[in-house]
Amino acid sequence: MKNPVRFPSIMVIFFLSIMFTSCKKKDVPPPTNGPPPDTETRSLWFETQAERISDDIINMGAQVSENGNLNSFFPGAIVTGAGKTFTIDFGTTGSRGADSCKRTGKLIYDFNASVTNANSFRMPEFSFKVTANNYAVNLSTVTINNKTVTNITPMSVAGQTVYSGTDLVWSDSSDISVFSGFWRHIDGWKSNEIITLLNTNDPACYKGQSFPIDWSKAKIQVNGSSMGSMTILDEFGNTNTEGFTNSVNLLIRDFTCAPNAPTPQDHPFISGSIDFKPGIRAVRHVDYGTGTCDFLQMLTLSGKTNTISL
Hints:
The protein is mainly β. It has one domain. It is built from 2 helices and 14 strands. Strands 1, 2, 3, 4, 5, 6, 7, 8, 9, 10, 11, 12, 13 and 14 form a 14-stranded antiparallel beta sheet that branches. The longest helix has 26 residues, at 42-67. It is globular and about 65 Å long.
């Protein structure tokens, strides 16, 4: 009789291992705790640049109305006009101002909305509207759909020769667009803000209504809000468009603060905060500190706080 065929033990182990592994439940990666944390800050940076562009337009209009020139800020700019209309021409090739920003094109200031005797930024009921012609800042094209700035200080300060206890206050209503290429632009950045000269009681800055404000000694406060629509190229190469809102909370800029010596007209905000909310995403809370003269801020986002520089 033939002997029965016997499988080598190694073959038995092989088949058993196949049976075992085929029945074994496959490993499943552990579930994640939702989407990755929101850490995007490009939109925040761009919104603050729009704010800066808007503020600079006001500062230049104030200096032109007070002094008739921009010599301390942008000596290369040509200021023309008289009476109620002035044009600041930065040229077609442009040059850099004392804040290191390169500007080209023109800004046109119309003072005709002011009351008859109000011809300077410091005077109650002085007002100007601004338009632009091919205006650009650091190659970002700026379109001014509307910008109106009005001195809303009570008329009781008119004619005063010294500070009498009332700060100078202006309202700013703006609607501008900033285009920095197809990958980054703001459409209809609309803002309503109140600007206050905080150190009107300092004679080194303000000597009453008969003399120009010395802006190199000024300390201003900005309070208000803005909103609009923004298109940003994200880190994955996708172009995203979303609306945004921004709350400006008692920001203070001290014109004696210039942390970077080569750019003496670059005056950062040194206190106050903003709350920027892009679309349905989390609020970006930025704290500018309590008065230290530097370019640093504290950003709180997704439960974490980090030091940044906008």
